Amino acid sequence: MVSIAIHGGAGVITRSEMSDADEQAYRVDLGRALDAGYAVLESAGTSVDAVTAAVRVLEDSPLFNAGRGAVFNHEGVIELDASIMDGQTLKAGAVTGVRHVRNPVDLARLVMDRSPHVLLAGPGAEEFALEQGVELVASSYFFTERRWQQLEKARSGDRFSAAEIGYFGTVGAVAHDHDGNLAAATSTGGMTNKRWGRVGDSPIIGAGNYADNASCAVSATGSGEFFIRTVLAHEISSLIRYRGLSAAAAAREAVRGSLAGIGGDGGVIVVDRDGQVAMEFNTEGMFRGARDSSGRREVEIY
User: 120: burial class by Cβ within 10 Å (0-12, 13-18, 19+)?
Assistant: First the structure.
């Protein structure tokens, strides 16, 4: 069975803060990303190509905290992180702190495919991008008034909800293709008002992103420091591989056990080696969607 799941962030929205128009806009863009990834799988494409296609759509949307809609750091600069992993080969690529790359997931893919490294940071990552022929964009491309207002609120020191400040909204995708290969990709702008070059879990293989054909593919979203401390994506893989848990049971134990146990909020999307999808979160909502060759197609928020 071919299958794909996507997410656009957990812990983002309460029902009282979401207008009908906003909800419809989120559902449209989630659906476009889901269908873009599934179209790759349906035409016998690879899981790596599918997750790349899905995440690229979410990065191009101003609604999510990745690419075009990313949040600002304390200095009013947008810094982007992304990672991708191939479950067949265990090859992975990641970038962190890039400021002029329109689609960081594409650059992470190039790191995986064309470099001897896994993680490239800041100016070095952008120098690599130029060497690979990636067109850099002006920082103004990423500016959105909504994110700027969230930064202003965060810097004011007043108390606001996480949704008002825009702490969450990382995007990701996991897929299982016709050949049984798994892949995962994750992309984010990090935390509003982040300082000191902070890096979250999204570009950290094993924390916010992981794929292994022997178990599953995982993409995470939420409070990144807690995902790093629990190495949550790899934990889910281990629960499936060594304890024989289903994707749903492993995701539940990790998110509601390990993550919540140390105070972490967020969620994960998981697809296992049989193409079974699980989507688990311990927050009020998670932007998410899933589609597979059995006819399933769903896009949900709460």
Answer: buried
CA distance 175 to 177: 6
Q: Tens digit of pLDDT for each residue in 222-273?
A: 999 999 999 999 999 999 999 999 999 999 999 999 999 999 999 999 999 9
Beta bridge pairs of residue 292 = 3
User: Is 144 noted as a catalytic residue in this protein?
Assistant: no
Nearest to 236 by CA among 264, 263, 255: 255
Q: What is the pLDDT of residues 153-170, one digit of tens each?
A: 888 877 665 665 566 789
Number of domain units in the chain: 1
Handedness of CA 206, 72, 262, 278 (dihedral sign): negative
Question: Which residue in 170, 192, 230, 283 is the catalytic one?
Answer: 170
Tell me the residue range of the domain where 267 lies.
3-300
In angstroms, rounded to a whole number, what is the distance separating the alpha carbons of residues 290 and 297?
6
Round to whole Å and give the CA distance between 49 and 66: 19
CA–CA dist 16, 55 (Å, integer) = 28
CATH number at residue 189: 3.60.20.30
Contact 275, 250 (CB under 8 A): no
**pLDDT (tens digit, 9 = 90+) per residue, 60-111?**
999 999 999 999 999 999 999 999 999 999 999 999 999 999 999 999 999 9
